């Protein structure tokens, strides 16, 4: 973890309430897909934790949803803004367990960190399938970007206005995959857990105070003892989760 100053290069709308932010600066602490950063915003005591969508050299891509005052302020930041960024937080996904045909499952704002994971797995020669779940057509994003990496992409929307009607679990039947990686809301996790038969990893969303393990505010119980989502997580093995 390090506190770095990064320059905002662009900040543009991507879908309904979804924004894409590109930052330039020292990205060397992002070692694995699934890690996150904590952004300091003027006027807010707590930083905002945002999953890293991708890193290329000194350029970092963040995708976030405007859900409150902090993220609303983020969406109004102009290019050229200097931001204090706590970088390299969280454990990230373990790609060595993927096997030859990994499955990526993303719901809503759980989709962004799977993009870098997909890119890394494709670079390793893996045959990747990506399942994307959204509420409606207006919420869909990054479908083409995953496909451009060479992944097979299937999309579902809860209201049926795009892709398959229903939740992302509707896309699971018939897939032949060796391991899964998931990121999204808890209801999606519970639905996946009820039907999936292969091993995998879940990346949990949790309210955080410090974001680096000092305050213990995001602690949860696992079969292997107490873990902090911001420090020992956000990625947990399926086998250790107490549902």
Write a structural description.
The protein is mainly beta and 243 residues long. It contains four helices and 15 strands. The protein has helices at 69-75, 112-123, 143-148, 186-195, and strands spanning 2-15, 18-24, 36-39, 48-56, 59-65, 82-89, 102-107, 129-134, 152-157, 164-165, 179-183, 200-203, 219-222, 225-228, 235-237. The chain is globular and about 50 Å long. It starts with a strand and ends in a 6-residue tail after the last strand.
Number of helices: 4
- The helical percent reads 10-25%
Strand order of the largest sheet: 10-9-8-7-11-12-15
Taken from the alpha-carbon principal axes, the silhouette is globular
- Radius of gyration from the CA trace? 17 Å
Strand content: 35-45%
Tell me the layout of helices and strands:
Blueprint: E1 2-15, E2 18-24, E3 36-39, E4 48-56, E5 59-65, H1 69-75, E6 82-89, E7 102-107, H2 112-123, E8 129-134, H3 143-148, E9 152-157, E10 164-165, E11 179-183, H4 186-195, E12 200-203, E13 219-222, E14 225-228, E15 235-237
Parallel strand pairs: 7-8, 7-11, 8-9, 9-10, 11-12
Antiparallel strand pairs: 1-2, 1-6, 2-5, 3-4, 3-6, 4-5, 12-15, 13-14
